[in-house]
Amino acid sequence: MLIYLPIAEVSVNAFVLLGLGGLIGLLSGLFGVGGGFLMTPLLMLVGIPPAVAVATGANQICAASFSGVLAHWRRGAVDFRMGGVLLAGGVAGSFVGVEIFELLTALGQVELMVSLTYVLFLGVVGGLMLIESLGAMIRARRGTAPKRRQRRRGWAHKLPLKMRFRASNLYISVIPPFLIGALVGLLSAIMGVGGGFIMVPAMIYMLGMPTAVVVGTSLFQIMFVTGVTTLLHATQTFTVDIALALLLLVGGVTGAQVGARFGMKLKAEQLRIGLALMVLAVCLKIAFDLVATPAELYSLAAAP
Q1: C-alpha span between 27 and 9 (Å, rounded)
Q2: Which one, of 32, 268, 51, lies nearest residue 146 by Cα?
Q3: Rounded to whole angstroms, what are the CA distances from 189 to 64, 170, 231, 235?
Q4: How far apart are CA 215 and CA 72, in angstroms?
Q5: Is there a contact between 189 and 99 (Cβ–Cβ < 8 Å)?
Q6: Which residue windows are transmembrane per the record (predicted)?
Q7: 279: nearest Cα among 35, 16, 25
Q8: Is the pLDDT of residue 236 over 60?
Q9: pTM of structure
């Protein structure tokens, strides 16, 4: 059943979009990720223009993050003060990212920029996840326990403008979390991702936050940043397709419930390896499309 997407200006099978939303929801339930770093490239692969895929993907991540924050807030696992600092940086980064996005769109280079950025980030993240997961599986088979990470004072403790974050039991400078939030906001505007795959490791290893409050705090920041990003794209670049967003959300809610049930039956190492292989597969497909000879060697476009 074909459905016309007015903003994307393409006709796409509605069941394919529901399936994509369901797949991302399934991954969210299985692996505990928002799936934005897979949603945008998958939308591009089915023919959605990159600009629309980025803006609409951010809209879906906002809704999914809101649901996650509520669940973590009930358990008291959200550091709202740290989330506020991350959010301030994220909003600043979003404004810069949208301006860069508009400039690239005017130059006609937005598709190339988005594709190259995805190849870089998906390749790095997927490779690191695969190496870490294989190492964990080998240690589990040998019966060797991983080395316990010792908490020590790092560069984040030596910078000025310190603030006490009681929920995270930290007393550090606000500069590092602000910069981390700004980077995630920039990526959200350009790539249509929530940035959790970068923020969570940074909060654990760079800021020294306890793992128990990292996920909820990350989702709190992502919820607002992707919301601001969606609003900016809707009012400045006009690339948010509501019809596409609704289909993805319906599929995502259903897939998340199924994924949560299956996720409880698999080992953590198996889940991470599966996610890493999928990330690398999407990375290779986008990289191949960049170097392969296109089906149409030229296109007609209106002059600026």
Answers
A1: 28
A2: 268
A3: 17, 30, 11, 13
A4: 8
A5: no
A6: 12-39, 51-73, 85-104, 116-140, 212-232, 238-259, 271-288
A7: 35
A8: yes
A9: 0.65
